Amino acid sequence: MSIPRKIDKQIANELRSLLSKLNIKKSKVTIDLENDTIEVVDDYSIDDILESAGALTPERAEEMQQELKKSREEWD
């Protein structure tokens, strides 16, 4: 994963202006200049969830599994 780089306020505002012309209102996007594409990034994408999973202790992972199981049982 790459390290985010800070951009100055003027450039950020100019980028927002350009993106709004494309009807892109989300705060996170990925711009691929090689393929001339732009992709809107969800705030809670599956990649973010999977990345954070590596930071969990086995005990916390077990707790989360139990919480999910309990939630699913309540839905049924």
Topology:
Elements: H1 9-21, E1 29-32, E2 37-40, H2 46-53, H3 58-75
Biased composition (Basic and acidic residues): 59-76
Region (Disordered): 55-76
What does this structure look like?
This protein has 76 residues and is mostly helical. The chain has 3 helices and 2 strands, in the order H-E-E-H-H. It has helices at 9-21, 46-53, 58-75, and strands at residues 29-32, 37-40. The protein has a two-stranded antiparallel sheet. It has 2 domains: 1-41, no CATH class; 44-76.
The secondary structure category is mainly alpha
For the record, give the distance between the C-alpha atoms at the N and C termini, rounded to a whole number.
39 Å
> What's the tally of helices?
3
Fraction of residues in β-strands: 5-15%
Number of domains: 2
